[in-house]
Amino acid sequence: MWDKLNITVFHIINGYATKSRVLDNLAVEIANHAQLIPIILVVSLFFLKNPRCNRLASLSIYSALFAMTLTSIIRHLFFHPRPFMLKLGTQLIQHAPTSSFPSAHTTFMLSIALIWLYFRDSRKIGILLCLVGLMGGLARVFCGIHFPLDIVGSFLVALSTSSLVFICRGWLERLNGWIAAKSRSLRGCLGFKVIEK
Length: 197
Fold this sequence. Notes:
Elements: H1 2-14, H2 21-33, H3 36-47, H4 51-77, H5 104-117, H6 123-142, H7 148-167, H8 169-189
């Protein structure tokens, strides 16, 4: 039942491929480059002299790392072919014949976006990032390299890891403090001048 629904929805979305060159090019660009948006935002937060921004950036990184690790484990334990491996639909992007479930790109984007939703002052940007992540996932279905359930799986993985990071944020922040202290100690041992702020 789920496989039939998955394939049916895939054909509906992917069926628009090659109908418009503009739409095809837009989908390819979104599918390939949407993940740059959360990366740029997270990196930018580290350059702001604001502890709250630095904290959000570090939690985003933890969420993404946990999500990508879980994605790798799932793909190792459960192999699911991509649409083009089953000779289904139209493929607009070349891709290696790896397991499709869940979508790594979408998982990465949503794992960061969902963390931003947990905090009131970053919630609006978090909603926008979620939309970007879902658009990126939809574009990858449109381009013929993922099934719709791959994107649903990505959301569930990202929701699980972001929730875990939010629950454990106090412990992770203490870990950050320990790493920072060890880093200053190491720089001091190596003869680098440590500037205390």
